[in-house]
């Protein structure tokens, strides 16, 4: 069910919006809205928040989507963009319209010819307008710049206080509140003013303080499996173990099963029925640990996931952040551990060689891998490294005080420090070494008869 919804979203994204994939934050907001939850999305500026109601507006069968927006200019711009792109038929109702335009807009709403209606909070406070909306039926009420509702906020706007009453008059439709910044006081105020105490907060900034990041260095494959078993034994709750290849996933799953752990397996080469069966075992709690390749995770939200362990270094920090970020979606503490064995980087370099992408793209991918390796080898706060990478400055943030490097700072010499600053020993050395190492990796993969496995699962 979740999969088919996900596929519908993907199709819609490509066909209508011309976008390949949702950002992780957008997806979490859209999932919550489509699940029928009242949602408060705290999204940084420029993170694509309008898509978070445009897409559900297209998918929801019942009722209008009403967007309450504080600025007429903003509203006009949004409505026009939507119309131009043919995404939605939007009406805007505000005081800048001529009387006849206003009548047209109201008429259109009355005939339910429009599926998104933009209005100011002042307009929403008018009984005649509410009555029209009520007749048309409102499925979702979106509150843009929702912090304006709070007297603690820096942009308090009295008309926003009327929204609570409007919700009651409209028969309590579902709510999506959007804001770029919200302190705990403001969040509490929004919930109170809207009389929605159970409103779910989805914070889409990169920083998620409940995730405890760490890297464990290992020096050989046996040590790695032993570390995995130790971690799985020691960590309570549900978890995901990611492997870079089908072979590694099978091996880890088998080892954990033999050690008496409750595990299941997911990769692109399993038959569809087995794949969905195993997924179900994990989702419904019959198995505690899912061992999977990166084929697992699309459209899956198991919010009580307490740990994510990576057996191999992924190809980029984007992949790592996305995969490890499947932990702790419920906001409770969760652990994200990378088991780092330097030889594993050869595998990613092998994937790079195989991709035969255009030169510029290839260079970019190589840089991304270098940044990933840099993260694994760094002595700095893991969160600081992630935030810097994603260019998401959190005001006043110095260190998370919870990652391995914050809890026990590594003792490093001046020379090592300098090398770390230079990145992973500089790109030049890697370029030279790369071809040789990739050659070795290809040879090994062939001699072990699993080159196809490696390539196949990447295509899933
Ligand atoms: Zn830290």
Question: What does this entry look like structurally?
Answer:
β3 (90-93), α5 and β4 (116-119) form a beta-alpha-beta unit. The protein is elongated, with a radius of gyration of 25 Å. The protein is of the alpha/beta class and 460 residues long. Helix content is 48%, strand content 14%. α2 packs parallel to α3 (51-59), α14 (345-355) packs antiparallel against α15 (359-377) and α14 (345-355) packs across α19 (427-447). The protein has a seven-stranded parallel β-sheet with strand order 3-4-2-5-6-1-7, sandwiched between helices. A six-stranded parallel β-sheet has the order 8-13-12-9-11-10, sandwiched between helices. It folds into two domains: 5-203, Rossmann fold; 211-459, 3-Layer(aba) Sandwich (Rossmann fold), CATH 3.40.50.300. It is built from 20 helices and 13 strands. The protein has helices spanning 2-17, 24-34, 51-59, 72-85, 99-110, 121-124, 127-136, 163-169, 184-193, 221-234, 246-258, 272-283, 317-324, 345-355, 359-377, 382-389, 404-407, 414-421, 427-447, 451-459; strands spanning 39-42, 64-68, 90-93, 116-119, 138-143, 174-179, 200-203, 211-217, 238-242, 263-266, 289-292, 305-310, 334-340. The structure holds zinc ion. Zinc ion binds next to α16 and α17.
Question: What's the short version?
Answer:
48% of the residues lie in helices and 14% in strands. It has 460 residues and is of the alpha/beta class.
Secondary-structure blueprint:
Layout: H1 2-17, H2 24-34, E1 39-42, H3 51-59, E2 64-68, H4 72-85, E3 90-93, H5 99-110, E4 116-119, H6 121-124, H7 127-136, E5 138-143, H8 163-169, E6 174-179, H9 184-193, E7 200-203, E8 211-217, H10 221-234, E9 238-242, H11 246-258, E10 263-266, H12 272-283, E11 289-292, E12 305-310, H13 317-324, E13 334-340, H14 345-355, H15 359-377, H16 382-389, H17 404-407, H18 414-421, H19 427-447, H20 451-459
Parallel strand pairs: 1-6, 1-7, 2-4, 2-5, 3-4, 5-6, 8-13, 9-11, 9-12, 10-11, 12-13
Helix pairs in contact: 2-3, 14-15, 14-19
The structure holds zinc ion.
């Amino acid at each position: 069910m979740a999969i088919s919804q996900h596929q519908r979203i993907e199709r819609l994204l490509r066909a209508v919006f011309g976008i390949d994939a949702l950002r992780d934050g957008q997806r979490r907001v859209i999932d919550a809205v489509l699940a029928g939850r009242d949602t408060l999305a705290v999204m940084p500026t420029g993170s694509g928040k309008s898509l978070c109601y445009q897409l559900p507006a297209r998918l929801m069968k019942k009722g209008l989507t009403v967007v309450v927006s504080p600025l007429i200019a903003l509203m006009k711009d949004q409505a026009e963009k939507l119309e131009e792109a043919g995404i939605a038929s939007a009406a805007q109702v505000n005081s800048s319209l001529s009387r006849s335009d206003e009548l047209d807009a109201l008429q259109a709403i009355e005939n339910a010819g429009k599926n998104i209606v933009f209005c100011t909070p002042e307009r929403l406070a008018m009984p005649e307008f509410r009555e029209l909306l009520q007749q048309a039926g409102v499925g979702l009420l979106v509150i843009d710049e929702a912090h304006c509702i709070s007297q603690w906020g820096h942009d308090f706007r009295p008309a926003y206080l009327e929204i609570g009453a409007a919700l009651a008059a409209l028969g309590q439709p579902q709510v999506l509140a959007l804001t770029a910044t919200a302190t705990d006081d403001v969040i509490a105020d929004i919930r109170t003013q809207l009389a929605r105490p159970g409103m779910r907060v989805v914070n889409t900034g990169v920083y998620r303080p409940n995730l405890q990041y760490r890297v464990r260095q290992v020096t050989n494959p046996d040590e790695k499996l032993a570390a995995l078993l130790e971690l799985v034994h020691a960590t309570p709750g549900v978890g995901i173990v990611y492997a870079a290849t089908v072979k590694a996933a099978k091996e880890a799953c088998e080892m954990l099963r033999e050690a008496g752990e409750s595990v299941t397996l997911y990769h692109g080469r399993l038959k569809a029925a087995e794949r969905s069966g195993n997924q179900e075992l994990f989702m419904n709690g019959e198995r505690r640990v899912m061992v999977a390749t990166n084929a697992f995770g699309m459209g899956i939200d198991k919010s009580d996931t307490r740990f994510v362990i990576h057996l191999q270094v992924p190809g980029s920090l984007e992949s790592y952040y996305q995969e490890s970020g499947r932990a702790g979606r419920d906001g409770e503490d969760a652990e994200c551990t990378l088991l780092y064995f330097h030889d594993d980087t050869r595998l990613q370099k092998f994937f790079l060689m195989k991709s035969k992408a255009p030169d510029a793209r290839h260079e970019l991918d190589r840089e991304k891998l270098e940044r990933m390796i840099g993260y694994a080898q760094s002595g700095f706060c893991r969160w600081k490294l992630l935030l810097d990478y994603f260019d998401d400055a959190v005001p006043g943030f110095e260190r998370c005080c919870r990652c391995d490097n914050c809890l026990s700072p590594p003792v490093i010499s001046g020379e090592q420090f300098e090398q770390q600053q230079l990145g992973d020993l500089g790109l030049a050395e890697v370029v030279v070494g790369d071809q040789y190492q990739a050659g070795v990796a290809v040879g090994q993969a062939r001699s072990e008869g699993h080159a196809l496995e490696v390539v196949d699962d990447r295509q899933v």
